[in-house]
Amino acid sequence: MAAILKIFLIMHCFFVLHGRHADGMPNVYDVTEYGAKPSNQDNTDAFLAAWRDACGSASGNATLLIPNGTFVVGAVKFSGPCNAGAGGGATAVVIDGVLQPHLSNDHDDGDWITFSRVNNLLITGSGTLDGHGSDGSTNHCQAKPLTTTLKLNVVTNTIIRGLRSVNSRGFHVNIHRSSYVTAEGLHIEAPATSRNTDGIHVGASDHVTISDTTIGTGDDCVSLGPGTTDIVVAGVTCGPGHGISIGSLGKTIGEENVRGVVVKNCTLSGTTNGLRIKTWPGSTSSSIWAYNITFKNITMNDVYNPIIIDQHYCPHGQCSNITEPSLVQISDVTYERIEGTSSSKKAVKLLCSESRPCSRLHLNEINLSCGDQTPCDTEISNVQGMHDSVPQAPSPAPSPSHEQEANILLL
Ligand SMILES: *[C@@H]1O[C@H](CO)[C@@H](O)[C@H](O)[C@H]1NC(C)=O
Ligand SMILES: *[C@@H]1O[C@H](CO)[C@@H](O)[C@H](O)[C@H]1NC(C)=O
Ligand SMILES: *[C@@H]1O[C@H](CO)[C@@H](O)[C@H](O)[C@H]1NC(C)=O
Ligand SMILES: *[C@@H]1O[C@H](CO)[C@@H](O)[C@H](O)[C@H]1NC(C)=O
Ligand SMILES: *[C@@H]1O[C@H](CO)[C@@H](O)[C@H](O)[C@H]1NC(C)=O
Ligand SMILES: *[C@@H]1O[C@H](CO)[C@@H](O)[C@H](O)[C@H]1NC(C)=O
Ligand SMILES: *[C@@H]1O[C@H](CO)[C@@H](O)[C@H](O)[C@H]1NC(C)=O
């Protein structure tokens, strides 16, 4: 009886895990079938073997499954292209377990889990990517190299949905040279003191949507680097951290423009910045544009710099000459319906480049208060042709000395 039951279980597992079910159930490649175990052993080889079969599956709809349990894995590169069969269907990666890094494994290229050159991918599950980053205090001494938790490199038509990423040792998610990527329903968390733990960074990519995601880290919640175009950030709840940033831009020669960015329906709480565009000073930077950018319907809760353009961005004195003007041209930026509270007196800072003044900045319905009853201040330099709407409520601001400040409603 026991023997029969055992055989039945083995058969059952076989059909569930590798079966070509008559009912059209997709092919599932479970890493535990390839020798992965929830223990302290390095499961990299098992993960890669399961990926090779899932990615190589010709029948379509293959699923790489990382089931419940805590799995240790070194730097692992899931590379395509995948052999999705004539029936098509995305290759799915379902992570229900917890992944932790194998720390003695060299992450020489600075990435932990990489998907590379894959089209039509779904990465989802109820699991957690736990980067085992330090608590911030140890991150500061940079003993360990900065390591991105999840990198997408040259990936297209891809969805990342529902996962948790905690305590990364660098960026949590980095979307690089990719197109048509959606990141939704993610939960990203690291200590406020941890350095360079950006939630989601996008660089050199187009048609990327980040939505319905909660991010609290020690750096930018979302950062959009050079060469990002047609980006939507919607329904992101951010804090703690450094806010939602475009940039930094203009540090490296050969950077491409940033354009077509919409940030909407987001809430920022207790962050150092809210909506920031940051560019480096210095003549070594490339001459690029950041334009057609819209921020709308954003709630600020005690944000230090709710609206900031900083074209003199130079953290830790890393630029050669901070008085050299930035060569990044910022234009056509709309801020609309930005409400809430600033924890500093200067709720709006638009500090543009002396050699490339910002042009066509539109501020409509900016309703920010600065704690005590006094009006907020603004600091504005090198801005051309700002067009403001007429505020819908009487503005308590004193009659302005600068025309461009006239209709910013700062309560
Ligand atoms: C995996 O874990 C989750 C949460 O702990 C639980 O809800 C789910 O039923 C588990 N699934 C399996 C197959 O054990
Ligand atoms: C793959 O999945 C899609 C969507 O669920 C389905 O329409 C298609 O028939 C599946 N293909 C195969 C070969 O199972
Ligand atoms: C600005 O960007 C939006 C959103 O990406 C896009 O739909 C629109 O066509 C762009 N406008 C111009 C003038 O390029
Ligand atoms: C503004 O954004 C909030 C989320 O922060 C959302 O609940 C609300 O529906 C949005 N309002 C409009 C008019 O889009
Ligand atoms: C977000 O913004 C869009 C307008 O662009 C609106 O249609 C939508 O209802 C808003 N609210 C939420 C919760 O997404
Ligand atoms: C820094 O740049 C400014 C403006 O270009 C220039 O006048 C100044 O000489 C530079 N200083 C140094 C130390 O290079
Ligand atoms: C500004 O925001 C406050 C609360 O944040 C709200 O009570 C007030 O009605 C708003 N004013 C306008 C003109 O939108």
β-strand percent reads 35-45%
Tally of DSSP β-strands: 30
* Top-tier CATH class of the largest domain: Mainly Beta
Q: What's the domain count? A: 2
Instruction: Round the mean pLDDT to the nearest integer and report it.
Output: 86
Structural class: mainly beta
Distance between the first and last residues' Cα: 79 Å
CATH fold call of the largest domain: Pectate Lyase C-like
Helical residue percent band? under 10%
CATH architecture level-2 label of the largest domain: 3 Solenoid
* Biggest sheet details: 19 strands, parallel
Contiguous helical run count? 2
**Quaternary structure:** single chain
CATH homology-level superfamily of the largest domain: Single-stranded right-handed beta-helix, Pectin lyase-like
Region (Disordered): 386-406
Family: Belongs to the glycosyl hydrolase 28 family.
Protein name: Exopolygalacturonase
Keywords: Cell wall, Cell wall biogenesis/degradation, Glycosidase, Hydrolase, Secreted, Signal
Task: Describe this structure as you would to a colleague.
The chain is mainly β. The protein folds into two domains: 1-138 and 145-187, Pectate Lyase C-like, CATH 2.160.20.10; 220-315 and 322-392, 3 Solenoid (Pectate Lyase C-like), CATH 2.160.20.10. The chain is 7% helix and 44% strand. The chain contains two helices and 30 strands. The longest helix is centred in the first third of the chain and has 17 residues, at 2-18. Mean pLDDT is 86; it is low at 1-24, 136-143 and 388-411. The structure holds 2-acetamido-2-deoxy-beta-D-glucopyranose (7 copies). The site of one 2-acetamido-2-deoxy-beta-D-glucopyranose has 2 residues, from loops.
